[in-house]
Write a structure and sequence with these properties.
four-stranded mixed β-sheet; three-stranded parallel β-sheet; 9 strands
Length: 99
């Protein structure tokens, strides 16, 4: 059984500082709240449902995983859903996105 890191809710500025400006180098636009997972994350099912089962996505503009992300189902992120930053490798059934 995999133990996932507990998520932290941070401001974009706090998360960006912690990641040595990796977020501001990768994203344009305004993100208020970030849900940060420090380390590898392994999820069963669809990405958003699985993350919502671990931590609330209310008012979250960006989900950040500092390590590898493995999802047994799809990662489906569209215009009105949170953005995603993965510091390591991403593995998923499918990756869907768009505005």
């Amino acid at each position: 059984m995999t133990t996932n890191p507990a998520p932290e809710r941070l401001s974009f500025k706090e998360a960006d500082t912690r990641l040595v400006q990796a977020l501001s180098a990768s994203f344009e636009g305004n993100y208020d709240n970030v849900l940060l997972f420090d380390g590898d994350l392994v999820l069963e099912g669809g990405f958003l449902d699985a993350v919502a089962g671990i931590g609330s996505l209310d008012d979250v503009g960006l989900v950040v995983i500092t390590g590898d992300l493995t999802v047994s189902g799809p990662i489906a992120l569209y215009g009105s859903l949170p953005g995603l930053y993965v510091g390591g490798t991403t593995r998923a059934e499918t990756l869907e996105g768009g505005d």
